Amino acid sequence: MNRLKIGITNSSYGVYEFKEAIKKIREQGYDCIDYQGFIDIETEFFRLPEKEFMKALAEQKALFSSHGLEVSQAHAPWRTPKDGDPEERKKWLIAIKKAIRGTNALECHRFVVHPLFPYMETDEHPDEVWKMNEEFLATLADYAKEYGVTVCLENMPFTEFPISTVEHCISMVDKLGRDNLRICLDTGHAAIFEKADVARAVKTVGHRLEAVHIHDNMGKTDEHLIPGDGIIDWDSFAKALKEVGFNKVISLETSPKHKNHPRDVWNNRELMLVEIAKTLAEKAF
């Protein structure tokens, strides 16, 4: 196979029943799943007691394996709007640790996490925000190491938040110095700062790059457009991945936009997106 592996979020096929979605994802050419089953901790699934939770994950892992799919990365639960409350952070950490154990159960080794947002998306109290996130990420990385999981800090699209750019992420990762704390480069988030030149972000992250979220936008807001529908220069992006030796998975965090089209065109939209992913993966190989 003269390309990198390609993957997509399982939620990108959320218009289908779960088993049908997984079957389609593999049949259409993907190698991997970006697992998003941990994002909402209020679901009946996530609230299952530990034994039942692990049993359900084992069944999902068996389904993925039966279709020849691997789980290349898993996303941590979305942030809480109460990150500034120490007691709420303790509860949040319990949930995220459960998701790390779940990641291990899926035989996945990459866990993508957002920073804490104690003051939402502003630059208020940057020193406090940094200290809080240092403690949070160090704790996560140390816990995840017990389960063979690498924590991947994701860059953010918020221009007023003090842990958003790839440079911010690099500073955090380098300061903490954990060998299982690396970076997930979100191309759409990077485009808010880099505009079309997301390749520069790739080169800046360099050897710290463990995972990617691939999607596009117009350089102003986080739109999760299909690659080519926004401003990102994808040829230079793929070339940069090759230059830094990235050999992981080209993982899409966009979808065929099913709800924007009648059902009779869904298959064509899905196959079009697969081809975009394959082309990127070939150029980055």
Task: Tell me what you see in this structure.
- This protein has a single domain, classed as TIM Barrel.
- Helix content is 43%, strand content 14%.
- It has an 8-stranded parallel beta sheet.
- The longest helix is centred in the middle third of the chain and has 20 residues.
- The model has no long low-confidence stretch (mean pLDDT 96).
Top keywords for this entry?
285 residues, alpha/beta, TIM Barrel, eight-stranded parallel beta sheet, 9 helices, 8 strands, globular
CATH superfamily: Divalent-metal-dependent TIM barrel enzymes
- Pick out the low-confidence regions: none
Oligomer: single chain
Terminal residue distance:
10 Å
What's the overall average pLDDT, rounded? Answer: 96
Major sheet: arrangement of strands: 7-6-5-4-3-2-1-8
Q: What CATH architecture do you see?
A: Alpha-Beta Barrel
Beta-strand fraction estimate:
5-15%
Number of domains: 1
CATH top-level class: Alpha Beta
| CATH topology name | TIM Barrel
Our count of helices gives 9
Helical content class:
40-55%
SS-based structural class?
A: alpha/beta
The dominant shape is globular
Largest sheet: 8 strands, parallel
* β-strand number: 8
